[in-house]
Amino acid sequence: MACSFISASLPLVLLLATLSSTCWSLQIPSARHGHRISPGHIRSSVMRHMSSNNDGDDPSTDSSTKVKFFELDDAFEDDGENVVGTKFFGGNTIKEELYIPEEEEMALELQKVKPKQTKEDSEYNRFQDANAFGDDLARRAGEALQLAINKILYDDSTDDSVATWKENPSIVWETAFPKANNAGGNSPLMEMKASKDFYNKLDVAILSAKTIESTADTGVVEVRWDVGAVWPNPWESRVLLTGTSLLNVRDDKDNNIITLLKQVDKLDGNKPSDIVGSLTSQLSPRFWDVYHIGMSPSAERDPRLINLSPSQLSTSRGNKGLLSSYTLSHLPPRLVTEPSLVDTNGRFGRTAQALPNHGFTTAIKTMGPNKEEFVPVSPIEVSISKVDGQDGSLIKWTVPVPPEFASKAVLPLPVIEEGEDDEDDNTSNDDALATSSANTPSKTSSPYSSRGPNTPAPEDPQSLKCNYSLRPPRLVATLSYAGNPQDEEVTELRRQLYQQVVENDGFKPKLDPETKRPVFFFWMNDAKACFTRAGGLGMAVYEWRADWAKTNEIGIELEC
User: Which of 79, 191, 323, 429 ranks highest by number of CB atoms within 10 Å?
Assistant: First the structure.
């Protein structure tokens, strides 16, 4: 059934690609680590809107000049042959034509840059975060289980400072996950080892843990996990399962061993044992992933539970009306990275439309001999709020962290330095890695920028921050929208959403603890944040999508 869907849908997709010029944009961190970041870099460091290059360029020209950029005049030109979208399917034809060796080497140089920050400022130790692992037994059990998983999935080495995880021979295991008869029966770790051979990729991250009850040497610990997998089908569907496990353990502190006695697994949602239903909804090919299949792998989607149970609505005191046009969703806890800044350039600065440079922790090689595998995740969430007592708006991006990267105990933090020392070495080789000034037009400038040649340079952003956190469960209501976070229309849609959800249907909005205002946000479903396990967030991909699809969303957070 799935294969016939692909066969039937591809001609339609190719037709759509012929009817409109497809474009996509790529963002990599352009300024080297440790440099002061200009507003021009913040908005879009290297955003290229590309089309096929069949213009007979001089072969002696440098490779960086062979990229043709869309201009407004040719945005709708179509000769029937050179439309980018028609070449996306079945391979990386366009991607290889646009391969620029010099810029790929830039990614290698960025990876070699050593941070000037202290170790404490440049790393986040997940298991030392009291918000995720609030007591000693929870921390020891979570860290020991994660290391045992990593040995199987990633061949990670042993850490003598972490407790050894063992399974009791008579372990009791209640789970929705299927068990293979030849994989070890009731052993969760052996089942995981067998599953690794089936999936194209399998990742498991222990996000948090809390002790439910404990005695001198035993305890009951609830752990929260993410399971990500790449399904072995032609389009390599990327699935994500979230849930919790209740673990009965014996803690032998003298020998630094934690033994699992019983494990009960539950999936998030109304049906905690419906593994088939949880997978089926993610296996079908998504239209826009197929449309841009030659440019990036399928994205790992942040899970949304739409069929809400009464317990998930117990404190919201609302009831969605029959004529209401919004979507009500429950989001499970996730590990996220949250770059933020204070922007004084206003709506026309368009700062919120792209991830800021200080949110990246690495650079990714996508082509050439050192090509790296990466995991795209979506959506990128943007929230814009007023800053009391000062000019400007607080812009915060929230990016879910994929389990492949979240499985590491220590995660790198971005290097943020705004000192004067970097301005004194403008002639250094490292400075060659930075893109051209925001005041100087270049071939990598976005053709969609609202700034004209005589427009004054935007002001530097303030209060650059970035951190990881465990996002709590959320109840949200959203409306579909085709535009960008700082469009003028967003204000009116926020008002309509508030009227439907709060005034008409009686839901209680969640208020910002500082401003005491409702918490609105914007989901960029047309954007993918790309992670590697070694380095973290290294690239963002912004896809073209038709306005009629209205793939982005405006949302409000509700009490749950």
Answer: 191
